[in-house]
Amino acid sequence: MDDRAGRRSPEPAATGTGGRRRHRRAHRDPGRTAATRVERLLSAALNARLRDDPVTFGRCAAELTALPDEPGMSEEPGMSEEPGMSGAAGWTGDWSRVVDRALAGRLSAAVTAAWGLGWEPADVVRIVRRRHGARHVRMAIDMIAAEMRRYSAATVDERWRAQLAVLDARPWWSSDDAYPGEWRAREGVGRAAMVTSALDVLVVLTTLPELPRLCPRPGEARPGGARGPAAPDAGAAERAVADERALARVRALLAKAESTEFPEEAEALSARAQELMARYRIDAVLLAAGSGPGGDEPAGRRVGVDSPYEAPKTMLLDAVARANKCRVVWHRGLGCCTVLGYPADLDAVVLLFTSLLTQATTALVAAGPRRGPGGRPRTRSFRRSFLVAYAQRVGERLTEATEAAERGAAAKSPGTDLLPVLAAREEAVDHAVGRMFPHLGRSTVTAARDRDGWLLGRAAADLAALHGRDEVTGAGDRAPSPVRR
Question: How many CB atoms within 10 Å of residue 263?
């Protein structure tokens, strides 16, 4: 008897091209084949999002989500080679784990790439919130927390750590493999929502533009490098404590100004806060002048500017910054600005801008909706005009208050060349802007077109007096100042 009689004869097609391809498939590592398939599906889903192709994205997301978990991952010969098509039925095995690990790997790599592009934790969360909802924001914070486990705390800049603390970015899940299930349980959603949310966050992270780096990224920070030289002088700690005490008093005054229902009380509190900030800033300048070279240098800070009415809000930030000898660069479309100046001045800018914006928003809400002739709504035009006028008038008054404080300080210290020091610091800030943004353009906010909004905005700015004298009636109307972008 022929010894081949009991064997199954090879299929005729095995000697052809198609047969060889099927033979190779049969000997592939199942896990590796699944990972390759998942990577192709992820790439196809991301490309579909970028092309605004919801149909292909939906097919890819469904295939990433819906395949069964059974042992023995394999591929049928008839499996479609096109991502997002009808080949899902050919797969079996622990598909969800392969998908979860691929998504986690891509998200981790995207977060690392964002740090390299100059983005900080607060920036990443802000842009995800701008594009998506709270669920996506929580996932982005989790991805940041997972990424930060790679770095020693000693190599993470203190400004970076402060942002992580505000975001409460810390691993809360029991293990990386358990994260997808625990995340779904926390959010109360199914697997499809988890996969779609992860893809959405991944699209945001992989399309981030480059931003100027404002502090060392994780793994590169050195102790003492956040605010000045690596080896601070003996009085640095005492000055830091004094700075924090001054800022705490300013925060308390501004918080009261924002919460009171009485305009006169808000005016008095804001005036006192501005007085303290002016004194705080001038004291810092005098201290730096007396300590000689090697003190603070211009730094940068990112400030969020949320929609709606981003342009007028940016104009308000620019007005506050210029009065405090800082400069603003608007990142149009990203919901933020970079403010450059000396550390003490940056603190004052952030505090005052936040308070003034809160007071302006309160005044806008109190003004209520507006309608034009024939009952047509004009609330947006009114509010834009209000904020433009408010920003312009606040800028005028802040500049007046700053100049008066500087003249008073110079008169009280006749032996101190305060004004030349201030001019030199302002020049240093301008040079820092030029180095960080060599191709900077300029932008002018659209003119206000609603007369009522303009008048009420200037009136609100006059009411929120920021210096110690009586209310000021409106000066001549000027065109809005240009804002850098």
Answer: 15
Query: Are 315 and 439 spatial neighbours (Cβ–Cβ below 8 Å)?
Result: no
Between vectors from CA 29 to CA 25 and to CA 33, what angle results, nearest 5°? 70
- Specify the DSSP class assigned to residue 447: P
DSSP structure string for 197-217: HHHHHHHHHHTPPP----SPP
Backbone angles phi, psi at 265, to 5 degrees: -70, -40
- State the pLDDT at residue 15: 42
pLDDT, position 425: 87
* Cα–Cα distances in angstroms (integers) from residue 213 to residues 12, 60, 149, 166, 216, in the given order: 63, 36, 21, 20, 7
- Which of helix, strand or coil describes residue 325? coil
How does DSSP classify residue 377?
B
Tell me what the mean pLDDT of segment 296-312 comes to: 91
Contact 276, 336 (CB under 8 A): no
Residues with Cβ within 8 Å of residue 221, at least 6 apart in sequence = 154, 155, 156, 157, 158, 160, 215
Per the structure block, which two tokens stand in for 2?
Answer: 């022929």
Q: Burial, 370: exposed, middle or buried (Cβ in 10 Å; 0-12, 13-18, 19+)?
A: middle
Rounded distance between C-alpha atoms, residue 315 and residue 446, angstroms: 11
Residue 120 burial (CB < 10 Å; 0-12/13-18/19+)? buried
Give the Cα separation of 205 and 106 in Å (integer).
Answer: 10
Gap between the Cα atoms of 209 and 394, Å rounded = 32
How far does the chain reach from its first CA to its final CA, in angstroms? 88
Give residue-wise pLDDT tens across range 56-108: 999 999 999 976 443 434 343 333 444 443 344 444 448 899 999 999 999 99
- Token representation of residue 278: 């002016």
CA distances to 9, 14, 301, 424, 441 from 484, in Å: 77, 68, 15, 21, 6
Residue found by looking up tokens 């966050």 in the block: 201
Its pTM stands at 0.75
Cα–chain center distance at 458: 30
